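DM from R.C. (forwarded with permission)

"hey, sorry to bug you on a friday — could you get me a structure for this? deadline for the figure draft is monday and I only need the backbone to look sensible"
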Amino acid sequence: MLKIEELRGVIPPIVTPVDENENVDENGLKRIIDHVISGGVHGVFVLGSNGEFYAFDPENQKRAIETTVRHVNGRVPVYAGATAITTKDCIKSAQMAERAGADAITVLTPMFIKPNEKEMYNHYEAIAKSTSLPVLLYNNPEKTTNNISVSLLEKLAKIENIVGVKNTSLDFAQTVEFIRVTEGNPNFKVLSGSDYFIYATLAYGGAGCVAGTANVAPRLVVDIYDKYMAGDYEGALKAQFELIPLRNAYNYGTFPVVMKECLNVMGIEIGSPVKPIEHCDEATIKRIEKVLRDMNLIKK
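My reply, with the result:
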């Protein structure tokens, strides 16, 4: 189980390789796990947004978590996505993740429906009470249209096993406020969910990042964190700027295909996105190749 001091650094939301029937490809999952861990990451997050969590039935979700836990084998903490629209289904996912051996769960706000603040609080409180695992909140208002407000976060942070938040809002002022209202709580951490704001989040006192680009360039993302923590602020900022072209490449295709395309180009054999998302066209792959060459992730 995750200890609060372990909630830090770079945690990639790993892509989920699938076979021709769009079931979890265990060997592909092992390849991406080894790739990111060899890059020095501080945790692995399975079944996040980059991991196409929405695409898998309970059996495949269980297989993905169990495979990840087995293959990571204690090298770093494993965070498992436990996201659904209803509280009941989130609780089922949270309890399944606990049985599968995850160290913590990550729970996105509901999608499609629009709970008010009281309903959202009750939702997260019920999930937290249903498991002994630490819970990392996941705020991504652009994708879900639901936002964890600063006032709601302040209340949720007082629940014993809610230990942090990943904020993927492009409103950086919100991340700053999340840090400000929880800075007196040693058992709650704020992480960047936008790869543009890793350095900035650390500068304000955040604990690290959940960074999709760390699927592709784990060492570079880890450099931002490691150099910042070592006091090499110039080096950390340089690494942050070097990462931006890869983050910009997200826009080359329909989310979340581009990180899979990058890994395929690099020879890490991740396979296809889950339909209706499709592979990028040939011209776009050439643009992706240029980004990877310029970042020295593939040969010139």
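R.C.: lifesaver. The mean pLDDT is 97.
me: no worries. The chain has twelve helices and eight strands.
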